[in-house]
Design goal:
InterPro entries: ABC_Transporter_SBP, ABC_transptr_periplasmic_BD. The protein contains 15 helices and 13 strands. Helix 8 runs antiparallel to helix 9, helix 9 packs parallel to helix 15 and helix 10 crosses helix 15.
Length: 329
């Protein structure tokens, strides 16, 4: 027995030193390979992430849609997203991946997780004020990727890409970074086909005027022309009344909303306040009482996970298009 044990141990050592036991070498070797991807105007060289962290639903569901749940170190998910997580098509993936924090993204959480790669948006995740930026992470040896949509207001020379194209760019870039290009290409192909089907179904005449209401009473917080709801409303055959606003998410005056005379109000549903309360406020708010949306009780609920840049955007447009058809618009 002693002789057999010694021989076995000797063979194992030889295996480790000479061949690294066959398939076990695959992950380290792949980790050393790099791809170069352009992100927010910068060309960045990425090895395969080994301990990736994603912030919020936009990041997390892009990863899940590409089948990467089992490769993630964890997620940072603000507690306000809880209702949308419960409704997500990727509920089981959320259960499998560790939630590192239910607050905003922070450098402390990233370092404690020993992450080597972080996915987030600018200002909605990365932040100068909170001391977590791609540049600072890079100095610590941690790579990052910013949502293309958020490149709109990043740096001295912002990169401006229509919201839906920004989503496709992210999915294809993530496919390259994680070496799942074929899956990413299939996903983007499917989303593009569905988007084209929606465009072909647009009714004749002027599109329905849609106001996207996120929150706010003194002033409404809403989606401008550079965020995902712009693509959702447009694909559905409507027109975002703030489409001419060169902002992602922004605050405007109620006067501007009333002047636009919205026919439909799309209300974003997440954990800041029950959506029923938001709708009650909008119904009872005197300045809006003369708008067709309030007069005709035309409120459409837009789930938070669908309202941020992510793989649910096209499904959200399909639902809104169905709603617009149901009211004859």
């Amino acid at each position: 027995m002693k002789g057999n044990t010694a021989a076995l141990a000797s063979g194992l050592v030889l295996c480790l030193l000479v061949t690294a036991c066959g398939a076990e070498t695959a992950t380290p070797a792949r980790a050393r390979d790099t791809v170069t991807v352009s992100n927010c105007g910068q060309r960045i060289e990425y090895p395969v992430p080994q301990r990736p962290v994603a912030y919020d639903m936009s990041s997390t569901e892009k990863m899940f849609a590409l089948g990467l749940a089992d490769r993630m170190r964890g997620i940072v998910m603000p507690s306000t997203a809880d209702p949308s997580v419960a409704r997500s098509p990727w509920r089981r993936d959320y259960e499998r991946v560790e939630t590192l924090s239910t607050d905003v993204l922070s450098l402390e959480v990233v370092l404690a997780a020993e992450a080597d790669w972080v996915l987030a948006g600018w200002n909605s995740g990365f932040s100068e004020g909170r001391g977590i930026t791609p540049e600072k992470l890079e100095r610590l040896g941690i790579r990052s990727y910013q949502h293309t949509e958020s490149c709109f207001d990043y740096g001295p020379d912002p990169v401006r890409v229509p919201p839906l194209e920004a989503l496709y760019t992210d999915l294809l870039d993530l496919g390259r970074i994680f070496r799942v290009q074929q899956r990413a290409q299939r996903l983007v192909h499917d989303l593009k086909e569905r988007a084209e089907d929606l465009r072909e179904q647009h009714p004749e005449g002027d599109p329905a005027r849609v106001f996207v209401y996120d929150s706010g009473t003194d002033e409404p917080f809403t989606s401008g022309g550079q965020a995902a709801p712009e693509a959702i409303v447009s694909l559905a055959g409507g027109r975002n009344i703030l489409s001419g606003t060169q902002q992602r998410w922004t605050t405007v005056g109620w006067e501007r909303v009333v002047e636009a005379d919205p026919e439909v109000i799309a209300v974003v549903d997440y954990g800041d306040r029950p959506v029923e309360e938001k709708i009650r406020f909008l119904r009872s708010f005197p300045p809006l009482s003369s708008t067709p949306a309030v007069r005709n009780n035309r409120f459409h609920v837009l789930d938070y996970g669908s309202a941020v840049s992510g793989p649910r955007n096209v499904a959200a447009a399909e639902k809104l298009a169905e709603y617009l058809r149901s009211i004859g618009r």
